[in-house]
Task: structure prediction
Amino acid sequence: MATAFSSDGEAVLRRELGPAAAPSAPRGDLDGFYEMGRAAAFVRGGGFRKVALQLPDELLADAATVAARMEAETGAEVYVLGDTTYGSCCVDEVAAEHACAEAVLHYGPACLSPCRKLPVLHIFGKQPLDIGRCAEAFRELYADRQSRVVVLSDVVYAHAMGELEQELCPEYPNIVFSRVVYGDPPAPALPGEQRQFGRQFLVEAPGGLQDCAMFYVGTEGLTLTNFMLTWNRCSFSSFDPTTSCGRRETLNVNRALMRRLYLVERARDARVVGILVGTLGVAGYLDVLQHLRELLRRAGKRSYTLAVGKPNPAKLANFLEVDVFVLVACAQNSLLDSSDFYRPIVTPYELELACNPAREWTGNYLTDFRDLLPGACAHVELPPAIPAAEAVPDVSLITGEMRATHLCDPPASQLPPSTALACRDQTNALAEISPAASFLESRSWWGLEQQLGQTPVSKAVQGRRGIAIAYEDEGREQS
Result:
């Protein structure tokens, strides 16, 4: 945390910049890597006249070439989204709507969360995979040919799973390969069918999924961590295509879960909760925001809803009155490591564990907030409120103090908590005066002010050199 708040930045200013790292796309096969034919067919088939291309940072070097090719082949007007509002794995509908785009071509790794408005075509990029070496590593890890194994992969290697399946299925009759899907499923799930993280597979083991092992093809990262926490009763192994090495995953899942349960206890102690909007494109995000506000209100906690883009320690440290934050984001970005932040950050599921007395820890971990909504597989109704005098006493495991865990009665009136109105502008539009907004407005630091139209236009001038504590010309000015 000291680095995040007290670094003077001198090392960054003094560092010499070398050539940019080479992008991961193969330079001689842009047509195959970016699947130009399939993308052009999608644009022409939908009759789209304005299309947005969203690429992660490591592929932006090819953005101009891909955009020019798409315009030439489709006649559509193409825009490149150079900086995503939130994570690059999510479809940035906000930036696409700024360009009035009618569809989005999303390139690179994706969380496969369903979108709300715009049609989307996912093009993952066909990263190379040594099928022979991967199959050999699988045989070394699972010598028993009767092993029940589910094969998962990062989306950038999904194109090679069919060939790997043909290699291993004759030897392993109980192997199951997952299929990458996105969007809402067309039909209800079958008994034993798993649909999570954009993966779909059918498990026919007598004991269900817990009788199976998991084999992941991809590099170590958030995707693998989410898999291991969600299916924490299964043993995991992996094959890293970049190093061509297979290994048994030794991540202490129990330790990771204990860390998350500690954050649940911090959320129980919190009196003020900040709801961080980490997505504006995943379907259902407005529903879960309303769900969390109602949950916190019934639990007797104050809440603020904050839209700060990509959260970082410096941004969130401006809200000192907040005891804990809850991040509403896609399943892949929900598990944010908050060890460097001034206040802990929990997931919607962890906040429910803290505030909903009817929800109990079962050993299953949820990272997709849509599972908590009414009608979903893991939704738990709030229990009826009980008088404070009849509530069971509870003691914080962190502070040792008594705390209230019972739910409050909902208000009899459905009117909003504040009905004070004020004239917002000269058009006599009315705006509601929010006590929370008034409190934040009264603070001394507001952030950057644009002051549009108030600053005179001037030519570019030579700026100061150095760092803020020691500009190169400060000595001459003082003399």
